[in-house]
Amino acid sequence: MASMRRGFFALLIPLLLAIPAFAAEGDLPERTEPVAIISGPSDIAVGRTLVLDASVSNGLGENTTYRWYRDALAAPISRSVEAVYTPERSGKVVFRLVIVTTIDGKEIEITAEKSVTVYRRKIVLIADSSVSREKLKIHSQIAASSGVFLQIVQPQASIPLDSEQALVAAITDLGDGIVGAESTILWADGLTGVQALSTATENAPNRRSAIGNQTIILITKSSIHRLARTLRGYFTLLRPQKIIVTRPEAINPLAAALDLESGLRELQQRDIDLAIVDATTTAIRPWNLLSWFVNAMLMRGVPSQTITLLLMLPVIATILAFFKQVIGLTTFGLYTPSIVALSFLALGWKIGLVFLIAILVAGYTTRSIMRRWRLLYIPKVAIIITVVSITLLILVGLASDVGITFARDTIFVLLIMSTLSENFLNAKSEAGWKGAVIGIGETILASLLCVAIMQWSTLLSLILAYPELIFFTIAINVALGRWTGLRLIEYVRFREVFRHMQEE
What we know:
alpha/beta; Immunoglobulin-like; 3 domains; 20 helices; elongated
């Protein structure tokens, strides 16, 4: 037994002595492959000094040497870790870095290249995904032929965000690329571009201060002067030199000119429409007090969609009053179709219609089941709202599975819609199935008509540019309140009576 122990330990001791050697060999870190890295700006103005640095290169060994080459020159322009160059003309300049280093006694050569754009003028063009990439490429080539660096910023069309959020992400990814630009061109729908620019630079002091030295150029196909009025708040917020609102055909003349002032004169000679927003156009006057207030709200970060919905609510109420008083639609009052119309605007009329039908079906089914329970009215309505809320929760979950997401404020719209089931059930109790179906059908029809009118881009921009127009809805409703004639539907309903009266 003792001999067996001695034999075991005699075998174990060499193994234990070998373990540290194996562990040490296994724990040796893998050597990082040497990589040459060039840090420095990717664009620079003519006459400015460019400094490129190779100190962040990885995995270098001993006896390291650096050689910097420019374009096709055979002689190096620098033999240190940095290269300093002052360009004298615009165009593309390619720098090549050659690093020779010794690792484990072996000499290794690694290289890296960096292309730098040298410009006489720099303009940043921020476009949404609706603008053709081929068109942007043509604009960039025309600008480059005049020594102008037109830096294109455009989100990918496949980004699952709305247009403004996609633009914010693209501008944020640009970093300080907007610094040094003479102008920033925003080519997007309505106020989307300037809203995205304001959001992306809100917490970036370098970008916000750079905009203070620039001119913002807004490209639009809608009314230039109406859009210019809505930009007054953003001018106060961003504080650029000026904001110019013009057409897409103005991009090439502005980019090819010697400077911005020459470009503006070229636009006037070509008779291209434009409007300028500057310090002289943002003064407060008695007749634009509400406009100033709306612009101040925009300046403080209130979304334009929220302001538009609030301004359009009196317009919706006036349209619905016209439908009821003049045409004769039997909607569920004014509040219900107004809420439905706003819900359709927030959700889209197709999704909104699905949710509305689900609310009505869930409410009616729940009330039919509870009919035998003999409950009091208030607890019964509370149970109906509970079931409707659960139905909405399930629909929101199903929508998320197919890639449809809802904003936080949209959820509140859905909760308000859940109260519509009570109106439908009350109408059914009072007027029966036929009256309830006609009432909800005409309510949905009136809401869809309001949505169609409110989605008219000309009306939206007009209300946002001239919010004082909503005061005219009071005068229109006063006239509707004094309407004493028959409604149009009544002419159809009583056509037989009118025919007999004419025969007599």
